[in-house]
Each structure stands twice: as structure tokens, then as C-alpha cells.
Amino acid sequence: MNCKMGGIYVNDRAVSVLENYEIEVLRTWKGRGAMLCESDKGLLILKEYTGPKDKIIFQDALLKSIMEQGFPSVENILKTKEGELIVYDQDRVPYILKTYFEGRECNIRDSKECIQAVKTLAQLHKASYMDMEDFPEVGKKAGYKIEKEYEKHNRELKKVRKFLKEKSQKTNFEIFLLKHYDYFLELALEVADEACLQLKGGVEEAEGNACIICHGDYQYHNILMTKGAMDEKDHPGMAVINFEKCMKDNPVRDLYLFMRKLLEKGNWPIELGNLLLDTYRKEREMSNADYAQLYYRFSYPEKFWKIVNFYYNSGKAWIPGRNLEKLEKLLSQEEEKRRFLENYKSTYGWFSFSSY
């Protein structure tokens, strides 16, 4: 590797890792949990990799397939001189080197960009159709049912409630949490039971092992506004990055994650929710199972579970005031969330559970 420093310092570890690639480095600088690299192959990003080897092989195949199916604005994983996807530094820490896009993160306070992000997601899903026959281990690990996910969450919620009730001295947060605990736990149990009864699984099999693969972490910081990704009118479009959490699951998983965070910030606005959902389904047709699963995902008190999970798995001697603020905000939004769910069911709830 030829390192053209141009007066810019490149640390030894970066040089030792990048020497494994057929690239000419011009300069490097730190990014968010990674190192960015300007090279003769364009802008690259070096990241530590914590997943299994079979997953990165699957991820590489998925990204190539997505581009072949007409969605070019995704990252590409570079191989080393020896044809490997993972490279190790002197301490045997694994890294991957990917292409990167110049641009900024999607602005979740801009409704137009959020609508564009949902449209981009639908287009991505149409290009994320994969045959899992060559990746049996990845498919086995990644695909699971939503009702099983909620059963696990509910076991954790019951465990924490027992812990709180048996604790002799409670903080103000713990007293407040316990006061409202039964309401959310009963809601969680009710949603899980109904989802188990109505849904037959999180993944719809289309043809044998073929299915749509989820991004797994479709959030604003993984969606970049960039001139390098033009839309059909040659306006700056969106590039999607960080597919490390890609998985075999119903594509509604991605749609729900993006919409929930956005709707929570806006106090569950019905009009925006309908606009986002209509934008998505204009690009990719949704099945009855999709509508039903999205409804149950919205209905389950995931935010409450996250607050409880964070509290229980962190040091309980000191509880950040932010936890109490989050819980108070969650309670204040419950009425608006119920209105949102009622509107969703009346607008999109024409699906017949017996039809799938």
C-alpha cells in the first residue's frame, strides 16, 4: 500500500490494517466509532467488526444482490489482497473496510426527508429479495417470530417487577416505576397473547427459501442525504449504510423501527403516521400479515420495556434522572398513542386474520 500522507498524520494501527488492501491512502480521520479514509478508490470507512464470519459473508452477498436488483446506493465491503472480508490488526481485533458516502444524516425533524426515507426503505425492500438456501445458518439464527420476541420481553418484565416489589429501600424512580408497572405489564401480556393467536410468524415465505431481508437498524443515522445517490429526478437522494444487523424477518420490522422513533418524538401524530405508511405502500404492496404485524408492533409497550431493561441491567446504585424523564414522557403520550392505534385499526384494519 502506498500511503500518500500529504502532511497528514496516519496512525500506525490504521496503516497496519489498511496495508492489507489494494488501495492508495491519501488521508485518514476519525469518525463516529470508526476511521474514515480518502483513497484512490474513493471515500472508505474502517470499522471494528464484532459479528460472526458467516454473517459478514451473508451481508456481502446481500449488498451485491441489492445493487444488482437496481438499488445502487448502498455500501460495498472491500476484500483484502487475499480475498478476505475481515482483516485483523496486531492485537487480533477484527475490522471491515467499506465504501462510504459523502453526505449528512437524514433530518428526522424534516417531514419531507422522513417521507423520502420511507420511500427509500420500500425501494430497498423490493431489492432485498434473497434466496437463503446458500445461507442456512444465517437464516436459522436471524428469523424468529414476533410473538416469541414478546414472550421473552414479558419474562424479563415479570422478573424486574418481582425484584422491585421485594426491594426494601426504593428510590423515587423505583417508586414511580412500580406505581405504573402493572398497567404496562398487563398491556404487554395482552398484546403478546393476541399476536400469538393471530399471527403465524414473523417471516412470510414467498418461494421456498426466498424472502425479503431486513436492514435491521433502519434509523436516521444510517440514512445519508448525498449527491452521490440521485433520485429519479436527479435530486440529491438517500444512501443506506450499516447493514451489520441485517436479518431474515418481515420487512415491517424496518418500517416500524423508523416510524416508532419518529412518531414518539412528535407525540404520535396521526396525519404523519398515515402519510408515512401510505408512502411506503405506494412503493411496495403490503399484505394483510404486514398490516397486522405492524399493528401489534405499535401496540406493544416497547419503550417501557426498554426503560425497564436499561434500569435493571445498569448499576442501580445511581439511576440517571433521564430515566424518570423518559418514563414521565411515556405516560404523557399514552392517550395520543391509543388514538393513533384506534385510527390505524379503523383505516388499515380491514385485513382478515383468517386470510393468512
Describe the 3D structure.
With 356 residues, the protein is an alpha+beta fold. The protein is 49% helix and 16% strand. The chain has helices at 12-18, 53-68, 111-126, 136-142, 146-166, 172-198, 252-265, 270-283, 288-299, 302-313, 321-348; strands at residues 2-3, 24-31, 34-39, 42-48, 87-88, 94-99, 104-105, 129-131, 210-214, 223-230, 236-240, 247-248. Strands 1-2-3-4-6-5 form a six-stranded mixed sheet, covered by helices on one side. It is globular. Mean pLDDT is 86; it is low at 1-10 and 201-208.
What labels would you give this structure?
single chain, 3-stranded antiparallel sheet, alpha+beta, globular, 11 helices
Number of β-strand runs: 12
List the secondary-structure elements in sequence, H or E: EHEEEHEEEHEHHHEEEEHHHHH
- Report the uncertain regions: 1-10, 201-208
Structural class: alpha+beta
- Give the overall silhouette: globular
The residue-averaged pLDDT reads 86
Strands of the largest sheet, in order across it?
Answer: 1-2-3-4-6-5
Strand coverage percent? 15-25%
Question: Could you tell me how far the N terminus lies from the C terminus, measured between alpha carbons in angstroms?
Answer: 56 Å
Largest sheet: 6 strands, mixed
